[in-house]
Amino acid sequence: MTPASTLSESALALCFLCILLVPFAGAGLALINTGLGRSRSAAHSMLASLCVMAVAAIVYFVCGFAWEGFAGRPAHSILVAGKAWNWIAAEPLFFRGLALDGSPASLAALLQLFAVGLAATLPLGAGADRWRLGASCASAALLAGFTYPLFAHWVWGGGWLAQLGVQFGLGRGFVDAGGASSIQALGGLTALSLAWILGPRRGKYALGGMLAAIPGHNAVLVLMGCLLAWVGWLGLNSAGAILFACVESGRTVLIAVNTTLAAAGAGLAAAAITRARFGKPDASLCANGWVCGLVAISAACAFVEPAEALVIGLAAGSLSTFAVELFEARLAVDDPGGVVSVHAVGGLWGVLAAGLFARFAAGGASGQWLAQLVGIATLLGFVLPLTYGLNWLLNRYYPQRVAREGERQGMDLHELGAGAYPEFITHSEDPSLPS
Fold first, then answer.
1. Which pTM value belongs to this model?
2. Which of 28, 122, 151, 254 could anchor a disulfide with 229, C-beta 3.0 to 4.6 Å?
3. The domain at 16-416 falls in which architecture?
4. How many CB atoms lie under 10 A from the CB of residue 356?
């Protein structure tokens, strides 16, 4: 792989165009989260998505890039056993010293403005119908200002995970071309933390532990979100692979094929499983499967053959379908958007799949699977406790869950003063609660 600093002008131009597609992924995820929530919180969900993306972008501009940086730029290292391990970038705040001139570093900063917004949007699906708008923005600031740039530096900024190949001979070091770990798994694990802290929605679990189904209010929004996410992921995976995996621009065709096949296989796997189990395909689980396929292929999108991408997608769709039941019915994690099952589980599977299936143009990849396992262990053993601890502290001083009356009334009326569908009479989706 050639260094990013030597990318041709045509590759940089293609990368810029791909980056411009990434906001479609954010729009798609926002629609999915909204459609899978209650109708009386629909406007609140969409506004929260817009607000957390805005907060994440501003905080990343202020200090996030300073902690993440870009491979080859200034960074802090620590000496362990005679080897220098890069652990955090040493950039100025406010993008100072970064020439916004179309260079690889400037394109990476632009891509990360969008990517950090995607990661910050994911927890909204798990906290739907009960997470205060102000608290979600404060949580997004913590993610964009510290959690995300720290781990992204380890993966994409020349940090110690990326150094595992050079320092220990573990393949190419930790490989994640499109953000299965730094965007998806990190955002999904943050969503798990928030689901634990917020607790389940009223009426979700009866006193005897019985699970009550609270279906999403608009399947059309959810499925439309899947189509937009597909477009966004084509850009995200292609731009990430060019900038962070340093692949040649011609490989974007393979990336687009792999991304599409993984999503297609995952969506159809979810449809087949739900039809076999319930007699008919389940639209929301099929949508979750489709997005899980997009998530899972992100890490290895540039380094696997199309047939292998299809296998990765089929496995992802199957995993997401059963993971939803595991988290909701067995572990009592109320996750209306299925974010933990899709993005955390799918992201971790995608990272592992990169170690199992990835092939590189030059040199062997001996030990690549072990480098990927180290990344997974870091996500579960460091990132999850860190993001839980930060949000737990936030909750201590700024309660994140809406008041009981606000949840009964609906987030739209309680926090925004108006509903998303004023021309309709919106009845309570929970028969145990008054309309």
1. 0.94
2. 28
3. Orthogonal Bundle (1.10)
4. 14
